[in-house]
Amino acid sequence: MYVAVKGGEKAIANAHQYLAAERRGDTALPELTVSQIKEQMRLAVDRVMTEGSLYDPELAALALKQARGDSIEAIFLLRAYRTTLPRFYTSAPINTSVMQITRRISAAFKDMPGGQMLGPTFDYTHRLLDFSLADENTKNNVTPPTCNEDVPATCDETPRILDFLQNDELVEGVGSAESHQVGDITREPLELPAGRDIRLQKLTRADEGFVLAMGYSTQRGFKNSGGHPFAGEIRTGDVSIEVTPEELGFPVTIGSITVTESEIVSIYDGSEETPPQFSRGYGITFGSGERKAISMALVDRALRCRELQEDIIAPAQDEEFVLMHSDNIEATGFVEHLKLPHHVDFQSELDILRRLRSNWAKCKAKREEIERNTQKEQKIRQSGTPEIKGAA
Q1: How far apart are alpha carbons 321 and 190 in whole angstroms?
Q2: For residues 72 and 44, is the Cβ–Cβ distance under 8 A?
Q3: Is the pLDDT of residue 136 over 70?
Q4: Complete edge-to-edge strand list for the sheet that includes strand 252-268
Q5: How far apart are CA 311 and CA 301, in angstroms?
Q6: pLDDT at residue 226 in the model
Q7: Which of 4, 11, 151, 173 has a Cα at 20 to 30 A from 230?
Q8: At what angle do helices 328-336 and 71-82 cross, to 10 degrees?
Q9: How many CB atoms are closer than 10 A to CB 375?
């Protein structure tokens, strides 16, 4: 990661002061509070938490305020703060089967067990500007509706759609979480080829736009995995976080977080050992990150090509390309370092360019001289008259 070089301290201090003034904006208007951002810009807050790898809505809102709404800058701020925090425990895998659901849909089954729950979504709204939101005198005090009759907000367990297909052996099973030690990309460098646990971690922290583009490319035919993908199930809700302190020896719930989980299925042609069946792609984010979760599931499925013995024919299937270019903080560092002083480097390149142009001009002159001599010799041969040296 490139960081800014020191130089011109007075100018830098003035730039910081200018930035603070720009961030504040018109002082005649009330200042935007962290609480307002946290409550009314939740999708932006959720993205910052997901790609910043830290579940803390308050800090994510603060980062967005400090970054003037720049999501990537806010993610950078949150990741930097995260590195200062001690790690006390490793939590148990979350159980999304018993989440307190606020949204649950399936594009594969209309009448799925437990029912559909639309929840808060833009899917069924008209993309028209609501000018009433611009009227500051209008009190937009809206209360959420009562709980869906088919799916209560709190339940012991909500069945998974893909479990019913798995019972009929129509979809591949899910591997055991205890089969191997799960890696941690926040503490260990990425090594290729990477296991699926590492790939999923990288995709969760990856830039939403990049993952969306990669997922979209698989839908446009840049892949070699199955046919049309289907959203087997998408669910959003609160899940409990449990840790097992050594001094107690049993799990203790320390809180809950909101997550969005997506499972995508597409047809797998099978192999000599495996019959044709649906294959899975998985995505998960903090908060309400449905677009990211779906895109992540599509890319996860594409990156399983080696495991499923499929040919690599598209960018989304290239593990090195996807994983090494998906992180927006690393990408920002390499792109924005171009703004830093490169005076010495540029002068060196300029000197090289001048020498190249000088050599090019000499070579061009030499080529033109050779061409003129060649043309002269051709004219002499065509005329059949020998050249008389020293003739008047």
Answers
A1: 13
A2: no
A3: yes
A4: 100-105, 230-243, 252-268, 277-286
A5: 13
A6: 63
A7: 151
A8: 110
A9: 10
pLDDT in tens, 56-71: 999 999 999 999 999 9
**Could you tell me the two tokens for 15?**
């730039």
Q: What is the largest CA-CA distance in the chain?
A: 115
First CA to last CA distance, the chain: 75
CB 238 within 8 A of CB 245: no
Which residues, in sequence order, are bridge partners of residue 240? 256
Q: What would the mean pLDDT of 371-377 be, rounded to a whole number?
A: 92
Tokens of 203: 């995709």
Structure tokens at 177: 């979480």
pLDDT tens by residue, 24-53: 999 999 999 999 999 999 999 999 999 999
Structure-token match 């719930």, residue found? 253
Nearest Cα neighbor of 41 from 15, 80, 70 is 70
What is the C-alpha radius of gyration for the chain, rounded to an integer number of angstroms?
30
The whole-angstrom separation of Cα 193 and Cα 323 is 10
Dihedral-angle region of residue 114 (phi above 0 means left; psi in -120 to 50 means alpha; beta otherwise): left
Q: Can you say whether residue 11 is alpha, beta or left, with left for phi > 0 and alpha for psi between -120 and 50 degrees?
A: alpha
pLDDT tens figures, 193-217: 999 999 999 999 999 999 999 999 9
* Per-residue three-class SS string for the chain: CCCCCCCCHHHHHHHHHHHHHHHHCCCCCCCCCHHHHHHHCHHHHHHHHHHHCCCCHHHHHHHHHHCCCCHHHHHHHHHHHHCCCCCCCCCCCCCHHHCEEEEEECCCCCCCCCCCECCCCCCCCCCCCCHHHHCCCCCCCCCCCCCCCCCCCCCCCCCCHHHHHHHCCCECCCCCCCCCCCCCCCCCCCCCCCCHHHHHHHHHHCCHHHHHHHHHHHHCCCCCCCCCCEEEEEEEEEEEEEECCCCCCCCEEEEEEEEEEEEEEEEECCCCCCCCEEEEEEEEEECCCHHHHHHHHHHHHHCCCCCCCCCCCCHHHCHHHHHHCCCHHHHHHHHHHHHCCCHHHHHHHHHHHHHHHHHHHHHHHHHHHHHHHHHHHHHHHHHCCCCCCCCC
pTM of the predicted model as reported, rounded to 2 decimal places: 0.85
pLDDT-based confidence at 175, cuts 50/70/90?
Answer: low
**What are the residue ranges spanned by the domains of the chain?**
9-82, 96-136+144-337
